[in-house]
Amino acid sequence: MANLRDHMGRPIVAVTGIGVVTSLGVGKTDNWAALTSGKSGIHPITRFPVDHLNTRISGMVDFLPSSSKGASLLTYELAETAALEAVAESGLDAGDFGGPLFLASPPVELDWSERFSLYNSDKHDIGSERLLRVARGLKVTDIFETTQFGSIADRLADRFGTRGLPITLSTACASGATAIQLGVEAIRRGECDRALSIGADGSATAEALIRFSLLSALSTHNDLPEKASKPFSKDRDGFVLAEGSGALVLESLEAALARGATILGIMRGCGEKADDFHRTRSKPDGSPAIAAVRAALADAGLGEDEIDYVNAHGTSTPENDKMEHLSLSTVFGERIGSMPISSNKSMIGHTLSAAGAVEAAFSLMTMRESVIPPTINYDNPDPAIVLDVVPNQKRNAEVGTVLSNSFGFGGQNTCLVMAREPV
Amino acid sequence: MNSPRDVVISGIGLVSSLGEGPDAHWQKLTQPGAQPVLEATRFSPYTIHPLPEIDWNLQIAKRGDQRQMETWQRLGTYAAGMALDDAGIKGNDELCATMDMVVAAGGGERDEAVDADILAASESRNDRDVLLNEKLTTELRPTLFLAQLSNLLAGNISIVHKVTGSSRTFMGEEGAGVAAVETAAARIRSGQSTHILVGGAFQTEHSDMLLGYELAGYLHRGAWKPVWQRQGGEGGGVVTGSGGAFLVLEQRAHALSRGRKIYAELGAVVSGRARRRRDELDAEIALLLKQAALPNGELLAVSGASGAHAATAAEKSAFDANPAIATRAFSTLTGHMKEAQFPFAVALAALAVERKAAYPVFDAANERPFSGIPRTVLATAIGYHQFEGMALVSAAD
After folding, report:
1. Which domain covers residue B327, as residue numbers?
2. Which residue among A74, A282, A395, B97 is least enclosed by CB atoms within 10 Å?
3. Which fold, A13-108+148-409?
4. Nearest-by-Cβ selection for A191 from B116, B142, B186
5. Residue B378 maps to which CATH number?
6. Could you tell me if A167 lies within 8 Å of chain B, comparing CB atoms?
7. Bridging pattern class, strands A244-252 and A194-201
8. pLDDT tens readout for residues B363-376
């Protein structure tokens, strides 16, 4: 009989379903095959013209029916696709899930294509006055729905029969991890036996790209797209904007065992700590990231020496990778040089609101498959960052525990600790 | 009956067209026949409730920080600072560093001039996607993006007020405010947290914020009327207002150990998602009222009703069916504040409990007097489009 409570007497939370979509494909099988063979999903942008743009590459998901239909519809389809895979694997009812929904998704805005078509459907007035007048004459509400921050979750709640008020959240690049954390906490508090946590981001519009570009956050290595994302390398020059989704079915271990579900992994701990230093830069001493890692370890009841592998935030920006190295070496000490630490983003780019969920899905697969996906494009190691990044080639290894980092713009840091087996 | 892990309200920060701070709101709202502050011309044919004059320096000391934000983030950061001040937490490094935070947020303000310029140019261009790249790469202010990001209100609160225990941002109109309060309360009750900053802000004086309602025709047009009197009027019934509401929720034992004033105890917080296309809203409201377990006898209800025709009619009929409830729809005087609506309702409920008096009627034709001392007050937010929530706020002793 497995222990059903953790070191703090809380219900242990198991993962019974995993779903994922990235630029590498739909579903775990295709993604895992590509990821472990070091394949990049980064490619030239074709969704919109790239005239005047400094960055002309991305990890967009271009192969779904909604890929050209705007951020809101694509984000929904990404979320639905990942969740369908996860719920199917769990064996639960995909139309009557029966637990709460936590969705990490990008902030929504009226798409430019809609702005243009609304504006040019009329000739009176100018600017916002015209838009408002056209708006109040609309007979259908599908454009309206794309501007409501709660609408994607509302549709998902309908689709999957989740229970109660769905929560849509944003903690920037940590959002996906926060969605999982909220699900874990709801189960631990005994509010539910199961939860559906999804991170989805289909918001790689021209405007999003330009906004990140203006902040000098993006790689401009346009000529060899698959080489552009190079975490921990000396010549890293920014992240690659990408889309994707990850979904987990979380259940109390007790409920999962009771219905004979396959346990895919255990969510051992979650930790967070906000940064008060700057809107885009992290505190130079790395103290918030350090505190987030330590909080996750404490929550998991694990010591520094009990983490086998780190799934890095590893964005490939000069700033993040330096700070992540600093914080990991502070927490793990000398051991850091011999711990495997790899970045999925070297292949899929930065999926923003989805990243924490996508990377949690890959972390769980790393443990199940006993294979660590590599950090590709590691050709010019940064001498200031001495890490075992699992360079360029996958590695076979027994991995019992994983730390997955997510550090966001705006100072929101969330870390997850996952384990292969219950205690 | 009291438990050390009860959730109490130990700080309130409020801003609306009526003014700023709990005292100013109490004074304005308890004046019989209080009149709303209206702005009917700037966004005609829409009336809005504008922000009052605010000295941002009072809560955001650094000009550099103020410059990094647009009005929405400033407003939220300002209201959050007031709540922290009120709870005696502001400037206390240890309490701020261990304080959790849940912010209910929409998005920030776009650059209206750049947008208008692009739209005007689109009339004579067929290559609109190229036009977009051309204009956005040259005309957007780089830092404006940060002022628009939903999670950056929380980010600014961390930077300005040093609240860094944890930081989460919930999105989704009124439902985000409901979920924020509900989750914060659950964290305290379960012992996960001792003190949490929770709230939101809405700045309506921007055309996109109006467009967010008007794409489904939700805004009221024509002469202003109280919330309950907009059925059948021109437009959709919502009159918006700029404002913000933040609460400090605290574990009872934690607040007592600091010797703080407690406004009220936050009891049950309930939430739901009616599938309104299937006409489930009436049943959902009835279910929430049941789950909230209302006390016997007369009950004051601080309603966040938006004026949106269908949702407001459903809420009204639920209250009309329960003669013990005396409602006060505060949006009559403040306008609808979207993500801030529910935290605002909870704050007004807590004020009535603490001051041991009910608000006079805001609409004599549709609300009835309440003469006793309200020991328990119901706060509601039935979303104008989706999501519903309620909370019970009671005397702390």
Report:
1. 7-108+149-394
2. B97
3. Peroxisomal Thiolase; Chain A, domain 1 (3.40.47)
4. B186
5. 3.40.47.10
6. yes
7. antiparallel
8. 999 999 999 999 99
